[in-house]
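Onboarding guide, step 5: your first structure request.
Type a short instruction followed by the sequence, for example:

Predict the 3D structure of this protein.
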Amino acid sequence: MKPLTLDDLAALASRPAPVTTDFVRVQLDTGGIAAGAEETFAAFRSAVAAAALSTPVLRVGSHGRSWADPVVEVAAAGLPPVLYGGVKADVAPQIVAAHLQSGRLIDDHVIAPASGAAELAAPVTHLLVLDTGVGEAKTKFFQFSFVEELKRRGLADQIQVARALDLGVYDEGVVVTLLPAGVTYTNVLAPDVARIVEQSVQGRQVLDDLLWKRTDPQVRIVLRNCGSIDPESLPDYLERAHGYQGLRAALARTPEQVIEELKVSGLRGRGGAGFPTWLKWTNTRIQKSEPRCVICNGDEGDPGAFMDRSVLESDPHSVLEGLMIAGYAIGAAHGYFYIRAEYPKAVERVERALAQAREAGLLGRNILGTGFSFDAKIRLGAGAFVCGEETALIASIEGKRGSPSPRPPYPSVRGLWGRPTAINNVETLANVPAILLRGGAWYAGYGTETTKGTKVFAVTGKVKNAQLVEVPMGTTLRSIVFDVCGGVLEDKDIKAVQTGGPSGGVIPDKHLDTPVAYETLQQLGSIMGSGGMIVMDTTDSMVDVAKFFLKFCVDESCGKCAPCRIGGFQMLQILDRISRGRGAAEDIAALRRICQAMQKASLCGLGQTAPNPVLSTLRYFDEEYKAYIEGGPSYARKMARAAGGAEPARALAPATTEGA
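The system replies with structure tokens like these:
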């Protein structure tokens, strides 16, 4: 495409996003591809061609619902867009024949999150039925009951009743959603069938006693384009997502004004420590030495975490746009994406985004004729967890061994090749274009007093619907696990939630109503981290959980400083003894002493936070440690079963349900 100008971007901003009434969007991220999405994509194209339809079959990124991969969104004239989950290749022809050709939904695949709608402005065309309690048999019974009632009233040919896969409501009995309005009823009983048909379907009256009045707790800012645009198409980003309008807004201001807007937003770094983004940019900009650099940290290494990977794969241009705005604000002409080599699809799509941006005149010299020059490159990480730490990441880009250096000086003073350097993670940068476009005050309207905006979590472990979740800061852990992700697998009792990856801590069920914020999680002995969240039930041994995460940190330690290298190994030996029933009472005191030494004396954040899983499990589950010491593993398992578990305690799997 020809190089863009500011006038071109202004024209695109004034033009409404194109509305497409017919499409098939197949979500092709790593998780979807692993579940067979490429075969599904090919099957849709073949089925559409065989039916002689003109419906475009499009590639998009992930909407975040990893539990339902492959996920497909389908729109046909007269029907609102519908999400289908678990769409293997053999399901594609069924959807084409039913949905695209006949306007009918197929059973057991529809995902329709409850919208909180409270009026039936349009005639009802479909009823979605799902029993959120007992299961499939009851769902089929209610489907049959609604069909028979519609037949009795002569409406069976006009209104379809379909079994849903997920309606975004859990443990609320039989749930019924009326399309296209999205009105949702819960705890529906057999006597309610006739009056729903009579009063809601025919009379278009909402039944207040059945109405689900809650809305989806999620707010999509970072994930705003994920699942709705082609991540490999710059025109799609420009036209459908109003792409690079944040950059245009930034270039119309001074760098200081851009930083001030970030200050108003309250955006804090989403990579772990939560350092204010505006302050990091200011500290880099005020340095007199030049040139300056900006780095996107995409070295995501937490077990089970896939937030950054999914954003880079699904919306790479938004992260690039955020990196460019950061470069403009701090006065940098060079930027780097540091992405781990284990993310080949993310690397491929970021490379494509860079090439497209250069061709369009959005990267290079004199961008959009404004005098601002900026370019970016990709550097691959070799999978070292410690390279998520800023100074280790810098060493890796420079071609050195990835190990941390003492701070100060901080990277904002002396970073990459001795230059002032600002390092922000993927999620932080993805927020920036939206903030510049809609204003810092708009962003600060979400969240808490001290922690503004939203946060993306990769929720995995013993949870029904493992997925990416984006919620306003201040949302409770309970709401994330039960309202968004459907609760615990097999309806077992929840025991704890682990946040912050290997450096985080476990939070017991009694604290699940704690609002998620940097300060509140720290008070509970955990951290926000980059956004990993693992759910554990009563069959999980907290001693084994602590041992698993500590072993990860020991394996990933660079070994440069003694507190981390030796202290972590010593603690792992002690935990191994305890888990084998060979521990002694004095081992608990020894663990606490070593933890304290590592926190105070370790060189970098890995060593300083590695004790968190041990300290938090000691804080909340010390009885389990005592049970292992006093009675051995068999006695500890017996205690776990008595506390509510139905199976022997076992260690947590390292990377449970991410896209698998």
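Each response can be followed by summary notes, for example: The chain has four domains: 15-107, 114-215, 234-444, 454-660.
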